[in-house]
Amino acid sequence: MRLRARTATLVLAASLACATGIAAQSSGEYDVKAAYLYNFAKFVEWPSESFPSRDAPFAICVLGQDPFGQGLDNIVQGERVQGRPLIVRRLKGWDGAELCHILFVSASVQQDFDQLLGGHTFRRTLTVGDVPQFLTAGGHISFFLEGSSVRFAIHRANVARTDLQISSKLMRVARLEGDAR
């Protein structure tokens, strides 16, 4: 299983470098999205204040119904980002969501996007979803399918209101939305 996670990571890194999407059919749509979440951690900088201590883990959280199964856990198992161990947390509600570094917001909480994303200040949390209205509700990155490939869009204005710095490499391979004035 470890080899599969590393292979998915290498495929993702190659796709980021050559600006093409990953075929969703090759390993399952949510396995591909899990690999993207892991790699987003490598292409985004968090301020040091995002971590309570020097050895605090890097948290990828899933809010709502978990579409990843064990796929996300398998990809991050034993991995480190910015020298920190990666952990996966599953949240039942929005409480504690601001303590996550990457927060995947499941479509199961879609009815609450506007109220909850607009009502929280995610200055140090990268929010990711996979429904079209996620970005207009205040989210930062949204997955979408283009043919059989998983792609992603970044809302520049929403990200500009955070303390996060997204790498230009990641921005080049994303569909960019929202003016970042």
Stated plainly, the CATH topology is called: Rossmann fold
**Total beta strands:** 11
Q: C-alpha Rg, in Å?
A: 15 Å
- The assigned structural class equals alpha/beta
* The level-1 CATH class: Alpha Beta
SSE ordering: HEHHEEHEEEHEEEHEHE
Largest sheet: 9 strands, mixed
Molecular structure report:
α1 crosses α3. The chain contains 7 helices and 11 strands. The radius of gyration is 15 Å and the shape is globular. The protein has 181 residues and is an alpha/beta fold. The N terminus is likely disordered.
Concise overview:
The chain has helices at 2-18, 24-27, 29-43, 71-76, 113-119, 156-160, 168-173; strands spanning 22-23, 44-45, 58-63, 80-81, 84-91, 102-105, 126-129, 141-146, 149-155, 165-166, 175-177.
Write the layout of secondary structure elements.
Blueprint: H1 2-18, E1 22-23, H2 24-27, H3 29-43, E2 44-45, E3 58-63, H4 71-76, E4 80-81, E5 84-91, E6 102-105, H5 113-119, E7 126-129, E8 141-146, E9 149-155, H6 156-160, E10 165-166, H7 168-173, E11 175-177
Key features of this structure:
single chain, 181 residues, alpha/beta, Rossmann fold, nine-stranded mixed β-sheet, two-stranded antiparallel ribbon, 7 helices, 11 strands, globular, disordered N terminus
